[in-house]
Design brief:
- The protein has helices spanning 91-113, 148-159, 170-173, 198-205, 281-295, and strands at 5-9, 16-18, 29-33, 36-37, 46-49, 55-58, 67-72, 117-118, 126-127, 182-184, 194-196, 220-221, 230-231, 247-250, 260-265, 278-279, 317-321, 333-338, 347-348, 352-355, 361-364, 366-371, 375-380, 385-388, 394-400, 409-414.
- Strand 22 (366-371) and strand 23 (375-380) form a beta hairpin.
- The chain contains five helices and 26 strands.
- The chain has a four-stranded antiparallel β-sheet, with no helix packed on it. A three-stranded antiparallel β-sheet has the order 2-6-5, with no helix packed on it.
- Helix content is 15%, strand content 25%.
- The protein has 416 residues and is an alpha+beta fold.
- It folds into four domains: 5-110, no CATH class; 140-173, no CATH class; 247-279, no CATH class; 296-414, Sandwich (Immunoglobulin-like), CATH 2.60.40.
- The radius of gyration is 45 Å and the shape is flat.
């Protein structure tokens, strides 16, 4: 027998529904009519009365036949008692806290008892306790449970001649009785499926009687573009014909065509300017590098271009002449640093803020402070620059100085 709820079938005009479970607050007495939860309140759906008997009173009488459930739901998300340090613990407060936990445990246990669950001591099957499972979606996977709606629609479709795709197997089409026959039709469009003999099948396939269609070996091929004619090897591979060096098979005709040999050019200056040839990686890199460096390059220098000849060093302010004119305005430069005029241990020296291994922030690298139509003004950081090794790991404490004995040369390159 349930101890946390009671179900009744309402009579026409009925408003009062008795219950006998204990509760702590009126708001903990919930009412459901045909599964729909109602709202407590004199101006809402129902009220709770305790004298002379405990009951709920619907503000609008039932029409008859509704299932009315009165259920205790003891506000699991609300703390009914809040104990404070140093306060006096009264019997009423302790009892209230205990009863709240007890009622919640009773409600949870009872809902578990009446819920869909694995049957105790069984083979892992779910026990629905002779209740309907409602609000289920129609199945999609092979092992999904079928709903009444899905079964009704499927059966109705078959009855009306609308057979779902893939629901009729080959075995259900017709029983083949004779040996060596195929189900098909050679009597014209819209004719019934029938058994076709071997002779009828050969006629459909246009295969002569006695022909061996299920065995044979391709023994040779004719020469063609990119293929060597002659016998096929025992493994069945086709051999490609030899083609000249720096060639690839392809099609550059602008439309569908047989493949031909396409030139692969290895020209650092791209002098051919061909719109049908390919290029090697090396020539592409060389051409791009030459285009970038040909715009403007200071070369590796350890002094600027001014009469005072300021040397590269931490905190140096340097000025470099260029002949780009107004083309330099708004241009993009890259700055590099190295240990000598040959570019040894070259590092990109772009201006940035960096946190060293002690956790201190500082500006590092080389900053282009301004660019005019004749000069590039450069400020070398007083902190040196961040340097990394070939693995991308910061070396030392994070900074290396500019100047003699370290990164003594810099290089400015216009890249765009």
């Amino acid at each position: 027998m349930a101890i946390t709820f009671v179900d009744d079938t309402a009579d026409a005009g009925q408003t009062d529904f008795l219950f006998n479970f204990l509760y702590l607050e009126d708001e903990h007495v919930a009412v459901f009519v045909d599964g729909v939860k109602k709202t407590i309140g004199a101006s809402e759906d129902y009220t709770v009365q305790t004298s002379p008997t405990k009951k709920i009173v619907l503000n609008v009488a039932a029409t008859g036949g509704e299932i009315v459930r009165v259920q205790r739901i003891s506000a699991p998300a609300v703390d009914l008692v809040d104990f404070q340090n140093g306060s006096v613990l009264t019997e009423a407060e302790l009892d209230r806290a205990y009863l709240h936990n007890r009622y919640l445990a009773e409600e949870s246990a009872e809902q578990n008892d009446i819920s869909l669950r694995v049957k105790a001591g069984a083979d892992g099957s779910f026990d629905a306790l002779n209740k309907k499972i409602v609000n289920a979606v129609d199945p999609t996977a092979d092992q999904d449970a079928a709903t009444k709606n899905y079964v009704d629609e499927t059966v109705a479709g078959v009855a009306l001649g609308t057979v779902p795709d893939g629901s009729i197997t080959y075995a259900k089409i017709q029983n083949s009785v004779a040996n060596n026959v195929i189900l098909g039709n050679d009597n014209g469009a819209d004719s019934d499926v029938q058994e076709l003999t071997a002779a009828e099948v050969r006629t459909l396939l246009n295969v002569a009687d006695g022909a061996t269609a299920n065995t044979g070996t391709v023994v040779s091929i004719a020469s063609g573009t990119g293929l060597v004619g002659g016998p096929i090897t025992s493994s069945g591979t086709l051999s490609l014909a030899s083609i000249a060096n720096l060639r690839a098979l392809g099609n550059v005709s602008g439309g569908s065509a047989a493949p031909v040999a396409i030139d692969i050019k290895d020209e650092d200056a791209m002098t051919s300017a061909s719109d049908t040839a390919l290029a090697t990686q090396q020539s592409i890199k060389a051409y791009v590098d030459s285009q970038v460096l040909s715009k403007w390059d200071s070369g590796w220098v350890n002094q600027d271009d001014q009469p005072t000849s300021i040397s590269v060093g931490n905190g140096a302010t340097m000025v470099f002449d260029h002949d780009l004119g107004n083309a330099a305005l708004g241009a993009v430069f890259s700055v590099y640093a190295a240990k000598d005029s040959s570019g040894t241990d070259m590092q990109q020296a772009s201006f940035s803020f960096w946190e060293d291994t002690s956790g201190n922030d500082a500006a590092t690298g080389i900053q282009l402070t301004s660019i005019t139509n004749s000069v590039v003004n450069v400020q070398v950081s007083a902190n040196g620059m961040m340097a990394v090794n070939s693995s991308g790991t910061v070396t030392g404490a994070g900074y290396v100085p500019f100047g003699s004995g370290s990164y003594s040369h810099i290089r400015l390159v216009l890249i765009g």
